Amino acid sequence: MSVVxxxxxxxxxxxxxxxxxxxxxSVYVDREVLPEIMRFLHDELDFKHLADLCGVDxxxxxxxxxxxxxxxxxxxxxSISRKEPLRIKVSVPEEDPRVPSxxxxxxxANWFERECYDMFGIRFEGHPDxxxxxxxxxxxxxxxxxxxxxxxxxxxxxxxxxxxxxRELSRYExxxxxxxxx
Length: 182
Description:
It contains 4 helices and 9 strands. The protein is an alpha/beta fold. The protein has a 5-stranded mixed sheet with strand order 1-2-5-4-3. It has a two-stranded parallel sheet with strand order 6-7. A two-stranded antiparallel sheet has the order 8-9.
């Protein structure tokens, strides 16, 4: 029995669809049942490796398959024992951008979820420390949203402080090279 068949047998209507792209199976799942599905994949079907988790913004999408929701969270799993990849996709509505956290299943999800939150503004319920990872805490908006301005209308207020800190740190050696003075 295939992984998708086992998922359908166990979770029924929470498995919303499937597709194959580039010889990899993608399974669309209901976000409210996501933790149970992921726990089953991890514990029962041996998908122990969460290789990646990322967000997608479909604003303005004109692809073949119409997207019901603006956002999607994509989980790339791998079963070492089965030598099998699996992609899990969860649709996320713009008006309620949240998904249950899977940090209790895969510790590495901590960083992936923080990055997705930072870049797309998708909240991960139950995350132990959901805060920005790449952008400063007071950065306006989420840079990978398609409606985020390419250039800020006004300079970020903390920019000068950041430049001064960079000048201060430039006197140190980094690795095998000297960073030029400020």
